[in-house]
Structure formats: structure tokens, C-alpha cells
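A further point concerns the way the authors explain their paired sequence and structure data. For illustration, here is how one protein appears when written out as sequence plus C-alpha cells:
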Amino acid sequence: MKYYLVAGEASGDLHASNLMQSLKEIDKEADFRFFGGDLMQSAGGTLVKHYRELAFMGIIPVIMNSRTILKNLTLCKKDIAEYQPDAVILVDYPGFNLKIAKYVKTQLRLPVYYYISPKVWAWKEYRVKSFKKYVDEMLCILPFEVDFFKKHNYYVHYVGNPTVDAIANRSHKDESFNDFINSNNLPDKPIIALLAGSRKQEIEGNLPSMLESVESYTDGYQIIIAGAPGIDHEFYKKYTASNPEAVVLFDQTYRILSQSDAALVTSGTATLETAILNVPQVVCYHMPAPKLSSWAFKNLLHTPYISLVNLICGHEVVKEYFAKSFTVENVHRELGQMLHVQKYRQNMLNNYKEMRDILGDSGASYRAAEIIYTKIN
């Protein structure tokens, strides 16, 4: 079978690559063509366009790059039409992928599968109508999404969460603290991890305040920044130049977290990864016009939380500081609670276990691949 995949971000590249590996196990003749990244390319097939050329975040960058986005859309549609796949698999990235879904379904009449639903339960709920029109099967990775879509008479599959798979299959799973610090020439001090986001705009907004929040902890702890994939090493130097205690390590996020005593984490999949790896965390997210952003969250969004950990559990497990509540003082205080108040720390870890039980076992990618392969045969 021939499969065309479209992933527009680093997390999509990771999860799509695992889905491809599972499809190869089920379908020995699987052939892939895709918009994606390095991980998908390593899984096999033909990379048409790298996600680095697709990811524009925010209204102004989207407007400024509208010609490039339109050009990429045109290329993607034309390439799918020429390839004539047995299935088109779209991974999150809704602004782009819903346009592709409409074209593929109405013009090419090909099966469309959506793996990893966009967060329509938080905002842009109207997009559910497009899913019902243009997507044959929605394969969800968050348990509460099943009930959300059911309210709209759209029946979806919960296949499990691929982050569980990624962490279960990670390299260096049994690595000791000493092995980690020795392999990276690090001092023998406990670690506070900083995960400031995967895009430059996120890092620019989050990292300076994160670094300021941990300044007073540098005597007893070392600060390690998890470098984002697709971001140039030089980009971080303007932050580490004035913070010599902070070290940036690339391609080692799970290794860093596994050895950390606590983490400051930008909202997104990273909050889930941190919880699965059982690391106490505080969620940080910078927003422009913080007062207006806080008002918009309270009055326009349809969700009580921004972190996946809290959303999955349905109650507050980790503190969320975003928009006007994202201050150095708040983050510094919460970090002290996590590091030094044992009862507080243990309560968070107990709640993490609840979250892992809700998510279920690994195998999301394989279950998703089974559904897709079965449907097109």
C-alpha cells in the first residue's frame, strides 16, 4: 500500500515516524511519501518538504508568510494527486491539514485518516464539522476527546497515547545519573531541567524568565536546557552567555528529564512527557499582552487548563503559570515547593500515576496502523 503523510511540527514528525514503523510491520509492501521531518525520513520513504519550512506560529508570521504557505499547500495537493496513495494520513497541524483533507476528499476521493486530533475542544470547535465532512476516521490520543466528539455525533477511536510508546522505547532507558553526567562532562550536582518550547517564538518568550527563576538555585543544582529539534545551536547562545551556569543539550530531552529533580516546562506535549517520566514540574507559558491573554483564556477558550497533565486527570496536578500569572516570583516559589516540601512533591507524583493509568498501555502507533490498514483493505 501507498501512504501519504503530512506532519508540520517536531512532535508530529516523531509520532508519524512511529506510525510509519508500525505500518511497515503490518504492511510489508508499505511505501511512504510525506511532508515531515528527519525522523520520518529515517523511517523510510520520500521526504517532499521538511516541517521547518511549514511551521509559522501566530497571526502576524502567518500573514507575512502567506505566499509561502499557499505555495506549500499547492505543492502538497499536486504531489498527492500524482502519487495517488491508498490512504492520506494527516497528523495534527490543523490550519494546513484541514485544507488538504478537503481537497483529498472532494477532488481526489481518497481515504483520509487523521492521527492526533487538533485541540478543537479548547477552541475552534466549529472545525468538528470539517472533520465529519472530510475525514474518514479520527484516531485520538487523549481519552477525553472521545466524549468530546461524541457530543457532536462524531465517533472516533482512542488508540492510546504515542508519548507513552516513545518513552517506553527511548534509548538510555536504564542509564544511571553518573553515566549521564560523565557522558556529557557535567558536574556531580542534581539537575533542574528547562524545556522552553520547540519554536523560536516560544523560546524567546519563555526562556529568559525561566532562567531568572532558577538563578538562586544554581549553588545546589545545575541547570540544563533541553535544546529543541530544528533550532540552531547558535540561537541559544544569547541566553546562555549571560547565564554561564546553564548548559544546552540537544537530542537528549528524555535523558535529561530522567535524571532531573524538577523541571520548568512550556505547555504542550512536554508536560505529558515530564509527567510520564515522573519528574515534578511547573508549567510556564509566555503570552503577549498578558492581561488580554488571561481574559481570552477565561472567556473564550472552552477548557479549564492548558497542560495535558491537568486535562487528562480532570483536576489540578501541576501548577500552570501563563500570561499574567507567568512571573519569576510565582515560578521560583513553586520550584521551591517541588524541591523541598516532600509531601507536596509526593502528592504530585501520586497524581502522575493516576494520569498514567488513564492513558493506558503503550501500543498507540500499532493500534492506529491496524485501523488504517484494515479500513483500506
